[in-house]
Every structure is written in C-alpha cells, then in structure tokens.
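User: I'm writing a tutorial on reading structure tokens. Could you give me a worked example: one chain, its sequence, then its tokens, then a sentence or two explaining what the tokens reveal?
Assistant: Sure. Here is the example chain.
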Amino acid sequence: MGTIAGTMPTRLKFTALALASLLLASPAQAQQAPTQLDAPLFYDLLLAEMELQQGDVSTAFQRLLDAARRTGDEELFHRVVTVALQARAGSEAYLAARAWRQRLGSVAAQQHVVRLAVALGRLGEVPEPLIDWLLQVPETGQRAALIQALPQLLRNIPERERPLNEMEPALAAQRDDDKQPAPRRQLAAALLAGLALHAGNEVLALNQLRQADHELPGDALPAWLALDLMRQAPEAEALVRPQLDGNLPLHGAYARALARDHRALESLEQFRRLRALEPDQAAHDFAIGSLELELRHPQPALEALNRYLASLGEQAAPEARANALLLKAQALTQLRQFDAAGQALDQVPEGQRAEELAFRRALIDAQQGRLAQGRERLRTIAADSPEQRERRLMLEVQLLRDADRWQDAFELLGQALKDDPTDTSLLYEHAMSAERLGKLELMEQQLRRVIELDPRHHHAHNALGYSLADRNLRLDEARILIERAIELGGHEPFLVDSLGWVAFREGKLDEAERLLRQAHRARPDAEIAAHLAELLWRQGKQDEARALVAQALTREPDNAVLLGTRKRLGL
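And here are its predicted structure tokens:
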C-alpha cells in the first residue's frame, strides 16, 4: 500500500448530500444520537467532495478525518478509512482506524484496526484491539469461533510461527497482569493458544488453554477452543467434558468433533444423548443414522434416517432430503434389500448428488451380479475436468474393490498413472491395491514416492509403517513413520491402532493394550478388534479375546483379517 499524496483515484463519487443522508439515517447510528449536520460540517463535507473529484485526496482525507474526530460519527470514520483504502494508502487508513477506535471504541473500529495492522505487518500492535473486539462479543461460542478463525486472518503471512513470535510479548503481558480483569487475562491466554496451534505448537496451545481455564474457572471458552486441539493433543478433551452439562451448543460441537476425528462410536453415544435432551432436533437423527451406517449397523441406521425423513417438511432443502435418501439407500443395500434401495434412490430430487447417485446404483448392480453394468453406469458420469475424471475413476476403483476385484482395480489405477505418474492420490491407491495383491516391494516403493512428493501425507506414512510392523520388519522405522502420521493427522483410531500394533510387535504389551483399547473404544472396526484380540490372547485373556472376535464377526462376518486371526488363534 502506498500513501495518499499524489494519488489520483477514479470514480470516487460520494456527494456531500449522500454523506449527510448516511450520517442521519445509517444503521450504525442506531445506538447513538444522530450527528447534527450543522453548516460548518456540511461545508467541510462539500469541500471534501470537491477535493476528491479534483484528485486532491490527501486534503479531502484530512478534512474528513478532522470532521469524524469532531463529530464522533461511525459512518464518517468508515468513509475516511474507505477513501484511504481506495487510494491504496494503507498507513493513512490505519491512522484513521486508530483514531476511530480511540474516539468510539466500537466493534467496527476494533475490527478495522486489527485487520489493517495484520495487512501492514504490524503484528505487535494487534493484541490490544483484538482483545477489545472479543470482549464486546457476548456469546462464548462466537468468541471461540473468532479465535478459531485466526488462521484465516493471518493467511497472507507465510511464516506460520511469525504471528506467535511477534504477538506473544503483548499477549503474555496482558495475561500475567494481575491488575487486568479476569476476562481480559483469559482472552490473552486463549489467543496465545490459538496462535500456538496455528504455528503447530500443540504443547504450548494446551498449556495456554489450561491457563485460560485457570483465569476464569467455569467459563466455556477454553472448552470450545479445545475441540480443535483434541485431534493433536488428546489431553485437551479433559477441558471439554466438564463443560458439557447444560451447554447444548458445546455438546453438539463436541459430538461433531468426535465424528471429525473418526471416533464414530463415541460420537454416536453423544448424539444419542443429545437426541434424548433435544427430541425435536431432527439433525440428531441424521447424525445418528450416518454414524450407525459407518459402524455397519444398517438396521438402526435405517430407523434413524426414516425418523429424519419423516420430520422434513415440504419446505426442506432438496440437498437435505437427497443426503438422507442416499444414506437410506446405503443402509438398505447393506441389508440386501435391493429393490427398496433402488426406490429410495428414485426419490432423490432431480439434479442432486448425481455422482453419488450413480455410484449407489452401480453398487446395487454389482451386488446383484451385474458388475459390468455397474461400471458402465459410472462411465456415463460427466467428467469434463481432470478433477471430475479422477473422481469418476476412484468411484470405479471403489466399486471393483467392493466386488473383491483387486487385480482389476490395480490395473485401472496403473493405467491412470501412466498419464500422471506424480499424482499422489493415484499412487497411494495403487500402492494399497498392490499390498492386497501381495506386491509388497512395489507397495513400499510407491508409498515412499508419495511421501517424497507430499511429506505431509499422513496416510502414506501410516500405511508404510503399519506394513513394516505387520511383517515384523524394521520396527524402529515403523514407529517413526507412524508417530509422524499421528503428528500430521492427529490421533485418529486407525493411526492409534497402527502404533499399538508396533508396540505389540516390540513386546511392549502394556503400551499396546492402552493404545489398542483406545482405538477400539473410538471405532470398533474389525481389524482393530483383530489386533486387540491377538494382544489379549498373548496376555492370557482368552475369554475376552473370544468374545471380542465373536462380536466383531457379527458385524463383518467376511472380514479377511478377522477370519485369519480367528484361525491363527484357534478360536
């Protein structure tokens, strides 16, 4: 941004009469007495208009700023900042915003100061107006949302650590000043937590949230912010759970955070509690149906989705109805009620979710022995862009895998890789197909290539580490790979399971039991159950191992890993 002097903007049309109208009628003035448009003020506005039309923006800016300071008018201050920004004069815009904040201290003034300070790189000057802004937000969840939006505010600063480094001194001073009110000290600690999380320092983020909780005991702000941290630092969950009773918005956000982190069973338990507390909230039934389906419980999923669909009125958004009907068709397909599944798909509003609609119909074709027809159906999906073509390809790959046609999936992905050998999505999926076909050397080679191309691909780190552990090879490297996957992707159940399996191979049975139980509690997947059963058998807990395998087989009777574990243990 430049300065106002010598700038000649075009199309700056804002007459004195129009400005007078804004001063007298602006919504921003609803909370204060209207500005008295006396003769001197009208004359200043008229001169400023003429100066703008003549290109003398510097003089007009100063005249308008003086008038804004004199009148304390919100809309006039906003106009001064706008004039400076249109002239690409950032420093003058910041000067006007600071004068606005000093004179009125309104939310709008605080917002402009914060955003302009960030745009100008004056990060050390951000904390005080940012805290003032947040203190004027009455609802705790909204305050948390603004702090969680810090990465968006800082998106044009490429160095992720810089905001924390430059803003920490001022924030720490406010946090540690016993003369400051407790809400201000709490916000300073909470902002430090948000900046630390943005910088990738989860340890500091957790410590600052604990400090924020200490500064204002019983306030839910640290709990709201801990939701973002739970994936990387599971200890943060201890800040959330005590705040759930009686706080339904936080409780709902917690349930959604568990689903986000792939902790499907725990999320389902919370949504069931929410439904009991809020029986009129239909969205809980949709969440329950989706999670039951993810856990391979098609009958309770169908019941929840039917309740949700029955609650939708005629004015419901077509997208909402389409989503529920697609999930209902999936549940009916799992129940092998193919005609009913097709009828559910027939009810999807026209034009909604065409790709998934075709995929669901193709799955029904495949499960009824018409795989070729299902593949052909997918190939009729419009694919005008490379992204659309890749999505269509992945749908066909999924169809082949569900039909246990791994060789066909492997060949289809291999053909696509000839056109783009550096596509990490294709490489990863090809590696997974190679693993299933016993081509372990190729799998390892391709996963290492994925990591080389995308060092933050946590699924590739996990898959390679798990493969080494499963074959009892290079366990030190396997642990490093999986711990890196958790660092990148958070404590998702499948990643925790992989780390537990490494610990099992290393003979660290207590660590393995803690990790495998944690993973199974969050998501009772068949493969996680198989790993936990094998550990329990090793520990001499044969009865629990038998019960665990039997329970898992009721959900996935054809799971190869589970069947192999049962056979190997003689169950």
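What the tokens reveal: Confidence is low (pLDDT under 50) at residues 5-31. The CA atoms of residues 228 and 257 lie 8 Å apart.
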